[in-house]
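Field log, afternoon session.

UNIT: design team B
ACTIVITY: writing a sequence onto a fixed backbone
BACKBONE:
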């Protein structure tokens, strides 16, 4: 991951533009040493369905962010069957996924996870270069998380789902109705916000854009109206992040996650 970052930026082996470095031995991006330093732990439910299909949900956003950050991380799994007993003792606010920083601090909201990783690994793909980029990325992270919740909660009252769930017509109809009320206006606003090349920030791969990609991807997979393809600039955002080697690793199951 680190090697790919250097190649894309045309940097020499140990170069860094904002204080972070890349290890030639591990290919893993290193955080700013004065921040914390050390391995991050990602914690999530062991959410394989009985058919063995790994669900997406907020785990997609988080795994994509970790990979695009080039993060040095390990996984910790919570038993899905024990979730009711674990959710308040093992998490911050009763849900996951969750990131644990090397100093023991835990984050559970995906917008908070995105912001933390974007600042912890500032020279990575998801890092930002200016205060304006930080503001825009933060706005997209919060909105992408909100859109995901609107999409996911009302039809079945659960924030974990697979594509198979939407084969149920009543569930699909309920989800589409909620989409039209809550999400379609946000997609119109997103299309207006994006530049002609589909970027919202100067890099186009900020933590906010990657989180928004995670929500857009799941809207597309669950066949929401006008999401395959999206409007032109939004589709460019999706296509650009889809093409990242780090994202391909996520979908090919070649990650620590």
């Amino acid at each position: 991951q680190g090697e790919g970052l250097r190649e894309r930026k045309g940097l020499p082996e140990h170069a860094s533009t904002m204080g972070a470095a890349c290890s030639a031995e591990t290919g893993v991006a290193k955080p700013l040493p004065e921040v914390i330093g050390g391995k991050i732990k990602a914690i999530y439910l062991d959410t394989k369905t009985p058919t063995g299909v790994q669900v997406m949900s907020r785990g997609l956003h988080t795994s994509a962010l970790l990979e695009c950050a080039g993060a040095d991380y390990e996984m910790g799994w919570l038993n899905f069957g024990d979730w009711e007993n674990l959710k308040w003792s093992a998490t911050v606010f009763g849900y996951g996924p969750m990131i644990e920083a090397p100093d023991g601090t835990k984050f559970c909201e995906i917008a908070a996870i995105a912001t933390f990783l974007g600042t912890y690994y500032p020279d990575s793909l998801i890092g930002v270069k200016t205060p304006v980029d930080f503001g825009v990325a933060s706005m997209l992270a919060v909105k992408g998380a909100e859109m995901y919740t609107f999409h996911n909660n009302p039809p079945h009252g659960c924030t974990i789902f697979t594509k198979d769930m939407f084969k149920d017509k009543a569930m699909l109809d309920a989800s589409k109705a909620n989409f039209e009320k809550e999400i379609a206006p946000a997609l119109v606003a997103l299309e207006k916000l994006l530049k002609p090349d589909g970027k919202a920030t100067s890099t186009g791969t900020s933590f906010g854009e990657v989180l928004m990609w995670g929500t857009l991807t799941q809207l597309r997979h669950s066949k929401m109206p006008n999401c395959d393809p999206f409007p032109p600039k939004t589709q460019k955002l999706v296509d650009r992040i889809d093409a990242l080697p780090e994202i391909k690793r996520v979908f090919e199951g070649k990650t620590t996650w």
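LOG NOTE: The chain has a mean pLDDT of 78.
NEXT ACTIVITY: expression trials, pending approval
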